[in-house]
Design a protein that fits this description.
Blueprint (H helix, E strand, L loop, with lengths): L1 E7 L4 H12 L4 E8 L5 H8 L4 E3 L8 H14 L4 E4 L8 H7 L3 E5 L11 H7 L4 E8 L9 E8 L6 H24 L3 E4 L2 E4 L2 E2 L7
Parallel strand pairs: 1-2, 1-4, 2-3, 4-5
Antiparallel strand pairs: 5-6, 6-7, 8-9, 9-10
Helix pairs in contact: 1-6, 3-4
The structure holds glycinamide ribonucleotide.
The site of glycinamide ribonucleotide has 15 residues, from helix 1, strand 5 and helix 6.
Catalytic activity: N(1)-(5-phospho-beta-D-ribosyl)glycinamide + (6R)-10-formyltetrahydrofolate = N(2)-formyl-N(1)-(5-phospho-beta-D-ribosyl)glycinamide + (6S)-5,6,7,8-tetrahydrofolate + H(+)
Function: Catalyzes the transfer of a formyl group from 10-formyltetrahydrofolate to 5-phospho-ribosyl-glycinamide (GAR), producing 5-phospho-ribosyl-N-formylglycinamide (FGAR) and tetrahydrofolate.
Family: Belongs to the GART family.
Length: 210
Amino acid sequence: MKRLVVLISGSGSNLQAIIDACQAGTVNGQVVGVISNKASAYGLTRAENAGVPTRVLSHKDFGDRESYDAALVAAVSDFSADLVVLAGFMRILTPVFVSAFEGKLLNIHPSLLPKYKGLDTHQRALDAGDSEHGVSVHFVTAELDGGPVIAQAKVAIEAADNADSLAEKVHRQEHVIYPMVCAWFVDGRLQMGEGKAWLDGQVLPPCGYV
Ligand code: GAR
């Protein structure tokens, strides 16, 4: 059974989807630890309700990003992670962390990458007048939101949408594709190599599996 460690900063609805998928057996793994940089993150309650050990590691207790990331490496390593899943973990990670887990470090980002890296993705898609928006799961590299994309899911932007309604639509898709990608990884079907994402021995296209 592969050991998943999930990093969060907030609500943890993606964490919940992954815990549920593990419990249902659609992901052949177990969430063995949840780490948050915020003590108030509701995802910590979700983890406790599921009997998953938690740890709070506040970035405010560290003088710079590198020392925080070194402590984070140690915390994740304590759980002996096979897969590290960033699920709404709102920290920019330095190479100190990324290089420790590269190839087994996933992130979910609420846009159709390479569009809208960074924050406020839903409002930016609305402001640009886009007709579609979505979510990407990607391997994490040192480039912010820039690692190879594994999978994307699209949602239509309708005239009545605002940032909240769009976030809700995107979240529904996130809860489908993140467990799906975790399942691929734990089943040994998904790797990162030559700066690309590979599924079943084939290079995925730049937009990943859609
Ligand atoms: C998700 O929408 C995820 O895509 C986003 O944070 C939200 C977390 O929701 N991640 C980022 O913006 C990363 N840059 P959750 O806490 O309910 O899983």
